[in-house]
Structures
1.
Amino acid sequence: MADETPAPPETPPAEPEASPMPPWIPTLIGIVLVGLAALAVWTGVRYRNPPLAGGIVKTPRRAAAHPATGGGPPGEPEPGSSLMFPGDTPNANAPVSGRARAEISGGGAQGITSTMRSWARRGIIFHVVPEDAIVAVNNVVIGEARQFSGPNEDYDFPAPGSYTVHITAPGYRDQIFVVTAAENAKDELAKIDVKMQRVQ
């Protein structure tokens, strides 16, 4: 009897080996990722520093508003409104009569108080030392003096009439001015220029 040798088990056919990735594919993926990162940085920089139109910086000018009609530019307080407490508008007092430029009052232990008077058609501009002195118009705080110290940064009166301007700063003597807004005033803006005196 012939020896029967068992047949070797059949092995499944070998799967074809996967071809290796061409070397240019990882390079292409790297280039795409670097390009996306560069684009992200570039758009971020452009967002922070938008290009200037023609290299010219244009500062918006405040629209001139008539004292009685309002109509300031969008985002700006209306004439007479407070920059410190938006929406608060001082009421106008009856116009001060007479031509005197100063009124002196007080005396005794309190000392003498002088109130300077001026007239303007539209508003006030301040040059006050110290610049962070607080300004109130008819007992409504409108902000710090430096907010109304430059071109197109004047305080516009809400209506014709007289306004008591009170300037105060810690450690300094208060200053009081009366400004009358009138259409027939000689100046467009009243200029309040004061160096406050320290309390001794």
Note: The helical segments are 24-48.
2.
Amino acid sequence: MQRIRPALIALLLALSSVAASARADDTAAWAALRAGAHIALMRHTDAPGGAGDPPGFRLEDCATQRNLSDKGRADAAKIGARLKAEGIRIEKILSSPWCRCMETARLLQLGPVEAAPTFSNVFVLRGQTESLTAGAREVIDAWKGSGILLVVTHGANIFALTGVSPASGEIVVVRGGSREAVGRLLLD
């Protein structure tokens, strides 16, 4: 019992530190979203089936792709409601043309959604990762709006842009120009 106690204390301290870090990420992300002029990179909500898409998928046919689960659809609606309740001013919404991203973006109910091919799935389109990521950087760097640019895309894309590997439905808030992550939000 004596040996277990120091290990338990160390574990509790580590968990406390992680929780404090997550709260700091949340606080910074909310502050940036309220300030406007930032970019919110959101990974689509829950779409079961692993990474990528089934063999032979076609972008123009949602039935051939991984799609949102019922949980994913409910989470997208909850995230949109939370952003509205917090008074976040979404000025523009861009989305990967993949069905799970477009559906997530629409279910947020925060405004019109525009498909942006440069945010296409870099996991699936490995041969185009460099050009797609360069195009995404240009879009982010060019953002001069006073509100928030919300981009719904894939985890691999967000990782390529920021080095952050987000969970389904997670939002990584970045500064335009530097693409520096200022905070993260997991709202579902």
Note: The radius of gyration is 18 Å.
